[in-house]
Records
---
Amino acid sequence: MIIGLTGKNGSGKGEAAKFLQLCGFEYYSLSDILREVLSKKKIPITRENLIKTGTKLREEEGYGALAERTLAKLTPDKNYVIDSIRNPEEVRALKRRDDFFLIKIDAPQKVRFERVKQRARESDPMTFSSFVEMEDRELKSKNPAAQQLLATEKLADFTVSNASTIETLNDNVRKIIAKLSRERVRPDWDEYFMDIARVAATRSNCAKRQVAAVLVRDKRIIATGYNGTPRGVKNCNEGGCARCNSFGPSGANLGECLCSHAEENAITQSAYHGVMIKDTLLYTTFSPCLMCTKMIINSGIREVVYDAHYPLLDISLKLLKEAGVIVRKINS
Ligand SMILES: [Zn+2]
Ligand SMILES: [Zn+2]
């Protein structure tokens, strides 16, 4: 889950971020990317310089640049809090992740000014009139590459009022993440096993194509396999298989191929460990070739779930069907 925070200066985004960090969320701030840029160039970190650099970066790399740079650092398995989101394109970039939610932290202007005065950070304005003037400038910029706080706030999925205590703020943020956690959509079993197969495929040493298969019983993986030359033989991508390294048409000259297929390797890995695979489900990133189809049938695999089509699909499908093996193409 990724929680984005937006809000005007002094609204309490920092406090909300601190609370989320206590809850195990990893912290990122879009303005830290600007601080990094300024530090590298040895330019003083002032509010004005941060804003100027932000505008320049958005003009050069696209309005969502700060978000894009931050997204590149995130993995799908962790919870993150991202602070200082100030442009709607940053929100749109982050919303490409469907587990991203934007929270707007809100507080009255006078309250925010008092907080800013106490904090005294990076040339923050010290009088109420300069605070109001600065805020007007930031909120009403006509340059789409500049901060667009009002337009950004409008994209918020939740608004939290922070006019009173930190405890109330934390409590309201806690309620939001508890709700999101309850509603979180997990991948279904097909997606889960196919995703694992896709990761296994990245280990393939075949020069021509990366394929993997996962054998599953009772929703548990009992074997995996990816394509490549047999154990102890020079890897395909290092020249081990002349047929693959000639990069000819798919499905042609298979008889000369030295690479074992993913399904074949999942089946032989089970034999290697003496694991029975009768009545299992086979997830494969590619529909099986004729040779693997025959092995699938005779090893007693009950069901085949595949992702992409292989050129020899029709004859394999016909044979699997005739032998009573269930075949499904995953919806992806
Ligand atoms: Zn190969
Ligand atoms: Zn095959």
---
Amino acid sequence: MTVSFSHYIPPRNFEDVSKEFVQPIPDDYFIWWLFRRRCVMCSKSATEINEIVPRGRSKKSILDWRNRVTLCRSCHDEFHHNGVTAEKIKVMQEKRNYVLLATGRAEYVNYDGV
Ligand SMILES: [Zn+2]
């Protein structure tokens, strides 16, 4: 029997099967998985997890997976060198979203900021 995909017609109720977004568990394992062990700034092998909005400025930052990214040592040092500015935070949030879009993980992009 031959199946012709060119004549496939989606079911009328196709919207019902769209998957629901499940909030991830914000642990280290998830963060390493999310960024495929790559530095979000330079895409080299990551060695550490960074909070984009530093601990202390936002009490919930450490618990919020949207605020955590993996970095290499060099980019992590650069981020904290001379203090974390609003500009650095903005750049890293944009990089985070860019990496997620580029690696097919658009559902984890954060459009609201942290
Ligand atoms: Zn890096």
